[in-house]
Amino acid sequence: MAKEASFCHVFLSFKGETRNNFTCFLYEALKADGFIAFMDKSDICVGDELNSTIMEGIRSSMSAIIVFSQTYAESTWCLDELVLILERYKVSRYFILPIFYEVEIHDIKHQLGNYGIALEKHRARHNHKVEKWREALVEVGNIFGEQVEGLQSTFIQNTVKLFRERLAVRFPECHHPVPKGQVLQGMSASPSLRHESSADKILFYTTTRANNGGGVYKSLRKILESGNVVYEVRNCSDEPMYVSELKELLGKKKVRLPTVIVNGKDLCGEEEVEGFYDIEMKQELKGILKAIYWNQYLGKKIMKKERKRYIFKMQFEWIISALCTFKTQCKCNVSGDAEQRPRFTAVGEDFLFTFVPPVSNRFLSDV
């Protein structure tokens, strides 16, 4: 069964003490600027294991903002999140923006103060994880972050601006939300035009060939860029893990590329896609995708036909050659028992046989 795509621009990792103040304000600011942010709404108990929703949020996000507070390390949940975030950071373009809220980066990097005390308390139940958590804290301490200073409202505005800049550098091929108060390039301002981007979750799975290919592939990008939508390009040639991700998402063993996923469903699939209210844009995308799929189908049929024709030609030429050789050898050697008579082995893609020519007056007269 296909799973819902939980694509988001940023995953927020934080301890509950900042949920209803700083982190909540940051989440609302990101949302108001058009970004899709993942923020867990439930209260997490210390010691709980990460659930599938959190892991899916990290896996399907483009980046992470980690809000380090005084009690962040007291939660094994937060520390497990940190480990998963850093694992993604090491193998992809995923980027991390650490924020230090009423805590010093020095304490995190060297596990001093509350962080050192928390790790020592965890040894009783989670001794096998403590070293991994310690290494993660050291590693994230070496990543450039932001210290919360001055008015929180001003700091949050500057953080959203910094996040936008880093996202654009890290993912230049993606169409990002338009900043509040600006109009999309190429569109005239009108009362009906929403400055905020659509909330649809759109993933564009493609290949290097599609990125560098002909007009049809460029048309797909052009349509997505012209619409008031936010989408992410996932190049399966650069990161093969995206192919497995697409198969898992659609619940299929084979997938076709390029594919546009809207809110967890294939735009050209059998199921009706929910959302995506720009009907004209939706039909344009589907038309181009279906044309690409049809060309791919015809190409495979032609290649299969040509392959069969080539195999048949090679087999036919070999049989003619073998018969000519057999005729020549039979004229030269018409005596002897079966052990001494020439043997011919025909090898083809679909057959393998050994032929021992018989010796009889009737056969020789025919030759």
Written description of the protein model:
It catalyses: NAD(+) + H2O = ADP-D-ribose + nicotinamide + H(+). Residues 6-167 form the TIR domain. By secondary structure, this protein is α/β, with parallel strands linked by helices. It folds into 3 domains: 10-164, Rossmann fold, CATH 3.40.50; 192-297, 3-Layer(aba) Sandwich (Glutaredoxin); 312-366, no CATH class. Helix content is 47%, strand content 12%. The protein has 11 helices and 11 strands. The strands form 3 sheets. It has a 5-stranded parallel beta sheet with strand order 2-1-3-4-5, sandwiched between helices. α1 (22-32) crosses α6 (152-170), α2 (52-59) runs parallel beside α3 (76-91) and α8 (215-226) packs antiparallel against α10 (279-332). It is elongated and about 95 Å long.
Question: What's the short story on this structure?
Answer:
The chain has eleven helices and eleven strands. It has helices spanning 22-32, 52-59, 76-91, 105-109, 114-141, 152-170, 208-212, 215-226, 241-250, 279-332, 361-366, and strands at 10-13, 37-38, 63-68, 95-100, 146-147, 202-206, 231-235, 259-262, 265-266, 344-347, 352-355. β10 (344-347) and β11 form a beta hairpin.
Please give the structural blueprint:
Layout: E1 10-13, H1 22-32, E2 37-38, H2 52-59, E3 63-68, H3 76-91, E4 95-100, H4 105-109, H5 114-141, E5 146-147, H6 152-170, E6 202-206, H7 208-212, H8 215-226, E7 231-235, H9 241-250, E8 259-262, E9 265-266, H10 279-332, E10 344-347, E11 352-355, H11 361-366
Parallel strand pairs: 1-2, 1-3, 3-4, 4-5, 6-7
Antiparallel strand pairs: 6-8, 8-9, 10-11
Helix pairs in contact: 1-6, 2-3, 3-5, 8-10
